[in-house]
UniProtKB/TrEMBL annotation:
It comes from Macleaya cordata. Transmembrane segments: none annotated. GO terms for molecular function: N-acyltransferase activity. One of its GO terms (biological process) is lipid A biosynthetic process. Keywords: Acyltransferase, Lipid A biosynthesis, Lipid biosynthesis, Lipid metabolism, Transferase. SUPFAM superfamilies: Trimeric LpxA-like enzymes. InterPro entries: GlmU/GlgC-like_hexapep, Hexapep, Hexapep_transf_CS, LpxD, Trimer_LpxA-like_sf. This is Bacterial transferase hexapeptide repeat. GO terms for cellular component: membrane. Residues 93-152 form the Glucose-1-phosphate adenylyltransferase/Bifunctional protein GlmU-like C-terminal hexapeptide domain.
Length: 300
């Protein structure tokens, strides 16, 4: 019990907090709103006084004014300003923050955090331990366990004094309808334009999509694909496993890239490509065949 209260403690604060909040129901209210539970039969006066002298006034006031409530369908917590359809299921351990919007039949599994002002369309399922911030999710999507959507992109610059500074990342990530996103996939929010994933696109596990990327509809991205920032990708594009795409590259619709390929420049024509750098597939196959022939002949 002492450990539970000590989690609220901040070293260096005054003893006035617990003197002001002396009665036990008040302390229980603070801890309950912090998603902690207190059994006063195991809380001695000594431990109460000893810990109370180290609790921050600011932290205690924040706990008192927290406006989170327990959702009746599933036991998760939500902010009072969130707009949640009555049919939504928020499992225990999940948290929905302020001004978020959850549509009908949304399912939020345990451990997931829905950040402020996030929108989730109807019939979408969010897996365990997922982090959603600065984003909107369309209807009938599936977001698998551990995915992170809407965090800052990787953007920095060096100023005149040689300091490494962060570029502002202030825009959203927009996920279309009927999109499936695999476990532990990361999709960054935009900086100069929004990151967009088109309708019916399917993304495998462990995929990285950088800020400002725009991916068309009905695309397929296999495991461990890495897409750098500001890439523009047309509809019906397929990327095999471990394909890498450099920043600011355009890929035309109906392009298919073989596994382990690397796109270093624009691909303007539909078709199959492969290799590093990626070239039309027949050219890449000739390169591979020539290299094998030279190896057999002992030609370096």
């Amino acid at each position: 019990m002492t450990i539970a209260i000590r989690k609220l403690a901040i070293i260096g604060s005054s003893a006035r907090v617990f003197n002001h909040l002396a009665r036990k129901p008040r302390i229980e209210e603070i801890l309950a709103r912090s998603c902690l539970h207190v059994n006063y039969r195991h809380l001695s006066e000594h431990s109460f006084d000893q810990t109370g002298s180290r609790v921050s006034t600011i932290y205690a006031e924040d706990c008192v004014h927290m406006e989170f409530e327990k959702w009746r369908n599933g036991g998760g917590f939500f902010h009072k300003s969130a707009q949640i359809d009555p049919t939504a299921l928020i499992e225990i351990g999940a948290v929905v923050h302020s001004k978020s919007v959850l549509g009908a039949n949304v399912h939020i599994q345990s451990g997931t955090i829905v950040g402020p002002a996030v929108t989730i369309g109807q019939s979408t399922k969010i897996g365990y331990n997922t982090a959603l911030s600065n984003c909107s999710i369309g209807d009938s999507c599936i977001i698998h366990n551990g995915a992170c959507i809407g965090q800052d992109g990787f953007g920095f610059f060096v100023d005149e004094q040689g300091n490494m500074l962060k570029k502002p990342q202030v825009l959203y990530a927009r996920i279309g309808n009927h999109v499936e996103i695999g476990a532990n996939t990361c999709i960054d929010r935009g900086s100069w334009r929004e990151t967009v994933i088109g309708d019916h696109t399917k993304i495998d596990n462990l995929v990285q999509i950088g800020h400002n990327a725009v991916i068309g509809k009905c695309c397929m991205l296999c495991g461990q694909v890495g897409i750098a920032g500001s890439v523009t990708m047309g509809d019906y594009v397929t990327l095999g496993g471990k394909v890498a795409v450099r920043d600011h590259v355009y890929i035309a619709p109906k392009v298919r890239l073989a596994a382990n390929s690397c796109v270093t420049k624009d691909i303007r024509e539909p078709g199959d490509y492969g290799g590093f750098p990626a070239v039309p597939i027949h050219e890449w196959r000739r390169q591979v065949a020539t290299q094998r022939w030279n190896c057999k002949k002992g030609i370096s």
